[in-house]
Model the fold of this input.
Amino acid sequence: MDRRIAVLPEHLANKIAAGEVIQRPESVVKELLENSLDASATRITVVIKDGGKKLSQVSDDGIGGDELDAKTSFLRHATSKIATYEELEEIRTYGFRGEALASIAAVAQVTMKTRRQSDDAAVVVRIDGGGAPALGREGREQGTLVAVQNLFFNVPARRKFLKSASTEFRHIYDVVLRTAISHPEIALEFVSDDETIFKLEPSPLGERLVDLFGERQVESFIPVEERGPLFSVSGYISKPAFGQRTRANQFLFLNRRYIVSRNINHAVYSAYEHLLTKGTFPVFIIFLDVDPRRVDVNVHPSKMEAKFEDEQSLYRFVSGLVRKSLADPAFVPALTLPQGKEAAEDIRLRFTSRQHSWPGGAPQGNDWVFPPRIDTVTGEILSENGQGGRGLAEQLLRQPDGPIPKPARSGESAQELGPDQGVSTGIWQLHRKYILSPIENGVMVVDQHVAHERVLYERAMHRFANAVGATQHLLFPRTIQVGTGEYSLLQELLPNLLLLGFEIKLFGKNTFVLEGVPPDVPKEKEENIVSDVLALFQEYQQAGPLDVRENLAKSFACRSAVKAGDPLTETEMRSLLVQLQAARMPYVCPHGRPVMLRISIDELDRRFGRT
Ligand code: ADP
Ligand code: MG
Done:
């Protein structure tokens, strides 16, 4: 090569730049939408044909431009959004590089029509594959329309790599959807091959989400919100029982710009740990607001990633907020029975949030105030109708790990929970499966097995974390023989089993002596508990990777908990509910199933035609 170094001609440089910025029709739509948002548009219309391959067009009612603006906008590095380095440090617009229009025009046939309010006609600029612009005028409303036709018509290699119209459509749909979520105050219309995909009027975020996702899905959302000195977060997350099979409905907006962040995703997931069924993912729509000086959005060709000044505290902020929101008692699922036509088609019961006050914010307070008749400080049962022996109540109240943790609400004493609350003290077992208890605004239905499982699971995890296992010594130690596989698993898990409160002596020859069990194990289960736990442990292990202790805690909780079919005394039921109330996450079992439901008086009134 004996050529001299030379600066590339602009049209060639643009074509090269286009390779990075413009990957497919989706990128065109994204860039055009961002320009409309930056131009303070209040109405935006997106029209595509053939998955955007034939046409991607965005029109707005924004500030528009004059002839000079229109011509300049297609030059590389031409932008009206930043002028100094200081402004680059503090970006408040979507665009700032000034290369989108230049890149698009280099690889497509572009028409821009734009008019400022003060001008009497719109300027029309047409550029074909980076050639010289052709100018014209036309009568038009204020605002800008950019039509991009035949993307990559002059770059056959790229054109060939475009996918089918339906695939390209889906990518564009995602981009328009994100804009619809992040800008509910903007009217947004989306038309594909002459079909209106959606036509959204300006509305509060909650209503916009109902338009986009449907009422059902939105009812499964929990609002999250917290303002901090460095970050503010708001938005919605799904109740754990409503995990989805894919990660599709996860949206993160940084200063209203859609971004992808593994760090923040992980922060959200970590808060759902132990709450979701395997293979399901939470839905989230999270708006993160950060001072633009503390974040760099100029680190990715299509600005889909950002670099934060303090990733770690952001992580803690997000996971703490999600954790807290998930534990909010206001989000115990309420039961609504399907009615009318819907009932005939779908007799499954629906879980919905307690009140339809969403999205105005979380309903405040906790109406779970049934009188436990238990001293919450000493753990002593104040009512005397428990059965003798090691009943559930006694096990639950033995509290080997210290006093019962106080319920989350502070300042609440046993007296406040006393019988003068105006709530009936009744508590019933239904079909030896569910516990029914009146609450302030209706009735609470608790699944006895799942509830007990949750309590025991948390207790087990607490023992692992604090190494405070307690043991119930057996009067007659048992010598137990197991299979070889089971024995080697037992050897492997022995340290953790000891932490849980088991007293096991390995004897060799597939034999061990059981001298003590955690106090949670009911008498009749002592004999088989070790084998049962090991078997379930293996079952969970096969289902997918799981932390050893978490698996053990789950297996232990499931095998020691009361079952459906076990009769419970009133005292046992009360103590279970008290324990549950003190749990960190009382509303979902370790597998993500709901622990309790409530049926509101309103719902009953409605069913009985009282309203
Ligand atoms: P950037 O958005 O990074 O500034 P672009 O190439 O996307 O670069 O756009 C270049 C310029 O064209 C913008 O800075 C803006 O001044 C102008 N422009 C583009 N689209 C619009 C629009 N829809 N309304 C008004 N001005 C626009
Ligand atoms: Mg732009």
